[in-house]
Amino acid sequence: MAQVSQKTMEPAPASSSTERLRKDLATKDSLAAVLTKSGRWDEAETLLREVLKARETLGQTIADEDMLMTMNNLGAVLNSQGRFSEAETLHRQVLEADEKSLGSEHTDTITSMNNLADVLTRQGKLDEAEPMQRRVVALSKQVRGLEHPETLSAMGNLGDILLRQKKYEEAETVSREALDLRRKVLREGHPETASSLNNLAAVLSKRGKFDEAEALHREQFALAQTNLEKIASTSGLARFLSSRGRYDEAESLLQDAVKMSTEEFGPNHPTTRSAMSDLGDVLLRNGKYQGAEDLQRKILGAGVAVA
User: Fold this and answer.
1) Which domain holds residue 276?
2) Domain-embedded: residue 102
3) If you compute the radius of gyration of the chain from its CA atoms, what whole number of angstroms results?
4) What is the pLDDT along the chain (307 residues), one digit of tens a residue?
5) The 3-state secondary structure of the chain, one letter per residue
6) Which of 92, 121, 157, 166 is the most buried (most CB within 10 A)?
7) How far is the C-alpha of 273 from the C-alpha of 283, rounded, in Å?
8) Domain count of the fold of the chain
9) Residue 272, domain member (yes or no)
10) Is residue 299 a part of any domain in this protein?
11) CATH number at residue 253
């Protein structure tokens, strides 16, 4: 899955109670980033909207760096929630402001461009997303260096776009490079390494390299730390096993994913409904039609709209 970068704010000059409020808002921005990464998107959104209102009270506008940071981070939350149109609007505003005030080669501008490319990718606007993401990779290599974590994240996003475009050979090349570099640069067990494992495994599956793909999925599964990561890796491995006709294994994993996600996030969370949808597909493929029907009726009865 593509990665969306959060922004952090440089400390502002000190000035009594106003400075204290600015610091509190920066702390809330950082907390919201943690909540977003943990899948607690409703909490993160509430917190960020509170921060936006407070910044407006301070007289801050889109011309202010810290206002742009909060807008960017809210866009990341909305993107995670599947509210792509709202997220795209915010990310376009942030990118336009960054390009105007900082120029295209500033790291904040590169991050904003990456985030807009990601939300475009999630909407299937690949013709616009691909050249933008290629530019992000090129600029990030130039400005940050090849081994910088944000460069590697951008490379992973490009690999995801190429996969969606069915450019499998190039997608494999890019995804392998990103994984190799992440293994070298990041600490063992870092969640972004798990993301690279998932991306490469998805490409390898499309290219018929199933043994290597399964090994990567199982490595990702073993690396999961947070509940969100555990649910994502469980679902990813299950989808792979289902694609290979190993329905009983896939069903067992997805039952675990649905239970874990429902307990952690509730039945209406996007992660839960995605796992439930995957489980329904496996039950259908496994010839368990009554179970599949019961699950779909349960989803409808809970008011869960499967994306």
Assistant:
1) 224-307
2) no
3) 20
4) 445 566 655 545 545 788 889 889 999 999 999 999 888 999 999 999 999 999 999 999 998 999 999 999 999 999 999 899 999 999 999 999 999 999 999 999 999 999 999 999 999 999 999 999 999 999 999 999 999 999 999 999 999 999 999 999 999 999 999 999 999 998 877 888 988 999 999 999 999 999 999 999 999 998 888 888 899 999 999 999 999 999 999 999 999 999 999 998 888 888 898 899 899 999 999 999 999 998 888 777 655 444 4
5) CCCCCCCCCCCCCCCHHHHHHHHHHHHHHHHHHHHHHCCCHHHHHHHHHHHHHHHHHCCCCCCCHHHHHHHHHHHHHHHHCCCHHHHHHHHHHHHHHHHHHHCCCCHHHHHHHHHHHHHHHHCCCHHHHHHHHHHHHHHHHHHCCCCCHHHHHHHHHHHHHHHHCCCHHHHHHHHHHHHHHHHHHCCCCCHHHHHHHHHHHHHHHHCCCHHHHHHHHHHHHHHCCCHHHHHHHHHHHHHHHHHCCCHHHHHHHHHHHHHHHHHHHCCCCHHHHHHHHHHHHHHHHCCCHHHHHHHHHHHHHCCCCCC
6) 157
7) 15
8) 1
9) yes
10) yes
11) 1.25.40.10
